[in-house]
């Protein structure tokens, strides 16, 4: 009781700063009645709803966020410095910060740590150097002092010298986050004695109940030699040979939800890390050991990767999920633990549930292989596949619409989609007919897309150079609420010979499934079924964006928020698309009365959810209080368009509509902003300042003014006396589009087949070498342009 009271007073002091912060933010109430606050003694801390019946490990990474009790095992390579004499303090501080963050969320964190031997070795080396004779040090010289021989230090002695310092360091670090830590040293004998096991279990439970983080380590000062291979025969039998087996044993004993093993490698590889063909294994299943080749163990520590895998499988058998990851990489060590708990694709996840289909990595490899076979087909064969897909869209119309009806009913019942997204989700007979027409356009225009020679140069006699079009490789297209996007993008990928990964929104799951099935059916006529893959696994978009070795281009189709998130998450993979569609229509003083209302109505009201719909209407100042202006306002009111006034427009009105919060808003609905400008120059400046370089329009009968607008507006699409809605691959005659790009590199505007191609150079010579073209060489450069081969007239 006395010890408990002392602990209470100590913890009360430690939690004082956190309590002050909670009071400041309004999250603390006296008595701790707030459901978001859990209390022990008078110490509140934020919690998250975490509950799970232990006994079965998590099947998927996405479930790890529900883990309540977590063991973090820190390998020797993670804790120690490169010279093995001392601790990696920055790395350790980062780990403590992450553990503290999770602890303050209401999780129960435990740490199994190495490092005592390294810390003790540093202290003992220092003591040995200090104990040398000062006279000897002075006479030997500074350079010789550095090379002074230090005897080999016995590991148990180092552990004894380092334990107290290591724990003091942890205590000081956790103090910064108002968290108390407690040290527990164990040996293998503690687990074989039933009474000691119960005592250990009770101590750990009591520490966790008091919001204390246990710091656990093998008592290396007295640890006996490991027993021979008598472990891993059952859930209750595993020898504590190293901290890997200790962490696994504790995880099962304490019914832990998650064990995170941090080492100096990214996870488990199918061959030794560093070898040319080594691939990181994302998910490891029991029984896969024979497919893995283990390398040497780390520079420090007792266990290697084989020991980690055995311990992980033993813990998994006991109902604890396991992730092995890199805790030393400077780019990820600062958030590796929290990333794992959030379900991100980090390290190797051990799971007992094997998915029915291939992994996304396998799908990407299948798409690349299928894409290369597709590119090698004759143009007529690729066109035949697309024609077949167009026929299937009309022949299987009833099945497609039935699947789409299921998606619409589920979305309406759950109420999770706004009206504009519901409209995008909906398919109809007319939409399918339009899709089929567009696909036939793609097939007809794809005859000479791949392998087309776009430049020929004679470098020298018998040395000819060609630049030809080739596919980009593997495309990842991520789309929301747009099932009609699937056949469009598939047809463009087929026509351009690209492999394709498709990631659709779950709100369109039924529609996407049948459309993908029909796509693969069409591909099967020439044996390239695998070229187009639909990702059905629980992969998060952020994880897909990290597959830089498997994916060559990402094309997002959806909300501006989706595009921004993908652009932020993409690591080393280019992203084609636009984050916003803030399209303008400028009405000039010389505009035709008959054209103005028709173009504005079509631009705004024909499909307000589209990215090429009008969002800001710019009106020349001289048109205010004219019949034309009144006609515009009346038309918008009849169409039930909500009007927001720009700052200048509002200043001209006594009673104005609600003033716009920002001039950079994509409404995506029957809403728009009206702003006043003094000239075409000011209209151009406004578009450059507030637009998104998507599509902008001028309505005028003055050709000079129109040409000024067309030449000076720096957007992907600039129109004169035409609706913004014409900014579309189908309407441009491209058949379809994978999206509209506002980037300035590669494709811009509606992206069709041409935007999915790149080039390569083919050089045909006859025993040519560069040295022949030197100053005293026998050959000279010609660099003659050669005529291009005749294009297919069809």
Automatic annotation (TrEMBL):
One of its GO terms (molecular function) is glutamate-5-semialdehyde dehydrogenase activity. This is Delta-1-pyrroline-5-carboxylate synthase. One of its GO terms (biological process) is L-proline biosynthetic process. It catalyses: L-glutamate + ATP = L-glutamyl 5-phosphate + ADP; L-glutamate 5-semialdehyde + phosphate + NADP(+) = L-glutamyl 5-phosphate + NADPH + H(+). Gene3D superfamilies: Acetylglutamate kinase-like, Aldehyde Dehydrogenase, Chain A, domain 1, Aldehyde Dehydrogenase, Chain A, domain 2. Can form homodimers/multimers. Residues 359-624 form the Aldehyde dehydrogenase domain. The keyword Amino-acid biosynthesis applies. Pathway: Amino-acid biosynthesis; L-proline biosynthesis; L-glutamate 5-semialdehyde from L-glutamate: step 2/2; Amino-acid biosynthesis; L-proline biosynthesis; L-glutamate 5-semialdehyde from L-glutamate: step 1/2. Keywords: Amino-acid biosynthesis, ATP-binding, Kinase, Mitochondrion, Multifunctional enzyme, NADP, Nucleotide-binding, Oxidoreductase, Proline biosynthesis, Transferase. Residues 68-326 form the Aspartate/glutamate/uridylate kinase domain. Bifunctional enzyme that converts glutamate to glutamate 5-semialdehyde, an intermediate in the biosynthesis of proline, ornithine and arginine. One of its GO terms (cellular component) is mitochondrial matrix. Its EC number is 2.7.2.11, 1.2.1.41. It comes from the Eukaryota. In the N-terminal section; belongs to the glutamate 5-kinase family. The keyword ATP-binding applies. It is found in: Mitochondrion matrix. Pfam families: AA_kinase, Aldedh. Its main location: mitochondrion.
């Amino acid at each position: 009781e006395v010890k408990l009271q002392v602990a209470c007073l100590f913890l009360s002091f430690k939690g004082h700063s956190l309590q002050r912060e909670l009071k400041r933010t309004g999250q603390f109430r006296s008595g701790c009645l707030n459901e978001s606050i859990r209390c022990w003694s008078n110490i509140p801390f934020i919690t998250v709803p975490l509950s799970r019946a232990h006994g079965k490990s998590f099947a998927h990474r996405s479930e790890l966020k529900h883990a309540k009790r977590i063991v973090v095992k820190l390998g020797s390579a993670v804790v120690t410095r490169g010279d093995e004499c001392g601790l990696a303090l920055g790395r350790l501080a980062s780990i403590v910060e992450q553990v503290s963050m999770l602890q303050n969320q209401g999780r129960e964190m435990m740490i199994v740590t190495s490092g005592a031997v390294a810390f003790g070795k540093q202290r003992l080396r220092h003591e040995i150097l200090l104990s040398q004779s000062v006279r000897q040090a002075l006479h030997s010289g500074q350079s010789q002092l550095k090379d002074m021989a230090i005897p080999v230090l016995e590991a148990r002695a180092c552990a004894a010298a380092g334990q107290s310092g290591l724990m003091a360091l942890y205590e000081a670090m956790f103090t910064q986050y108002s968290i108390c830590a407690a040290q527990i040293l164990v040996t293998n004998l503690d687990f074989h004695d039933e009474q000691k096991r119960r005592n250990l279990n009770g101590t750990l439970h009591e520490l966790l109940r008091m919001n204390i983080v246990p710091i656990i380590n093998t008592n290396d000062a007295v640890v006996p030699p490991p027993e021979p291979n008598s472990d891993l025969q059952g859930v209750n039998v595993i020898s504590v040979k190293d901290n890997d087996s200790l962490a696994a044993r504790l995880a099962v004993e304490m019914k832990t939800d998650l064990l995170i093993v941090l080492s100096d490698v990214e996870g488990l590889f199918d061959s030794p890390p560093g070898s040319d063909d080594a691939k990181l294994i994302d998910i490891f299943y029991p029984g896969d050991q024979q497919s893995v080749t283990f390398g040497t163990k780390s520079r420090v520590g007792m266990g290697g990767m084989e020991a980690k895998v055995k311990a992980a499988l033993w813990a998994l058998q006991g109902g604890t999920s396991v992730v092995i990851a890199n805790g030393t990489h400077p780019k990820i060590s600062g958030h590796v633990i929290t990333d794992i708990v959030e379900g991100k694709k980090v390290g190797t996840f051990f799971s007992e549930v094997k998915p029915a289909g291939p992994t996304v990595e396998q799908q990407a490899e299948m798409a690349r292989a299928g894409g290369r076979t597709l590119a090698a087909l004759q143009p007529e064969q690729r066109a035949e596949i697309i024609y077949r897909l167009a026929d299937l869209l009309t022949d299987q119309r009833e099945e497609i619409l039935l699947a789409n009806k299921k998606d619409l009913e589920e979305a309406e019942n759950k109420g999770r989609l706004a009206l504009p997204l519901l409209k995008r989700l909906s398919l109809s007979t007319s939409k399918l007919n339009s899709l089929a027409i567009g696909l036939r356009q793609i097939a007809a225009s794809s005859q000479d897309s791949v392998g087309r020679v776009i430049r020929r140069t004679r470098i020298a006699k018998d040395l000819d150079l060609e630049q030809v079009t080739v596919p980009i490789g593997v495309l990842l297209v991520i789309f929301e609420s747009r099932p009609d996007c699937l056949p469009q993008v598939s047809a463009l990928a087929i026509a351009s010979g690209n492999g394709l990964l498709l990631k659709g929104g779950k709100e369109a799951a039924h529609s996407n499934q049948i459309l993908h099935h029909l796509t693969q059916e069409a591909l099967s006529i020439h044996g390239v079924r695998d070229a187009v893959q639909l990702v059905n696994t629980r992969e998060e978009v952020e994880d897909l964006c990290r597959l830089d070795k498997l994916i060559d281009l990402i094309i997002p189709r959806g909300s501006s928020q989706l595009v921004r998130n993908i652009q932020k998450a993409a690591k080393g993979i280019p992203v084609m698309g636009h984050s916003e569609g803030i399209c303008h229509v400028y009405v000039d003083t010389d505009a035709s009365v008959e054209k103005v209302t028709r173009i504005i109505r079509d631009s705004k009201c024909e499909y307000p959810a589209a990215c090429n719909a009008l969002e800001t209407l710019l009106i020349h100042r001289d048109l205010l209080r004219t019949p034309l202006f009144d006609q515009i306002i009346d038309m918008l009111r009849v169409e039930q368009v909500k009007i927001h006034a720009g700052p200048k427009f509002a200043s001209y009105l006594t009673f104005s509509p609600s003033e716009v919060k920002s001039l950079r808003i994509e409404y995506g609905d029957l809403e728009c902003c009206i702003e006043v400008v003094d000239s075409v120059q000011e209209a151009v400046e406004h578009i450059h300042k507030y637009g998104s370089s998507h599509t902008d329009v001028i309505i005028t009968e003055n050709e000079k003014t129109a040409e000024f607008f067309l030449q000076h507006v720096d957007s992907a699409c600039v129109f004169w006396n035409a609706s913004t809605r014409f900014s579309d691959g189908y309407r441009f005659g491209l058949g379809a589009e994978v999206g509209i790009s506002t980037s300035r590199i590669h494709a811009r505007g509606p992206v069709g087949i041409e935007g999915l191609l790149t080039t390569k150079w083919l050089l045909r010579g006859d025993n040519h070498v560069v040295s022949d073209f030197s100053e005293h060489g026998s050959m000279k450069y010609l660099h003659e342009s050669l005529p291009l081969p005749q294009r297919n007239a069809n």
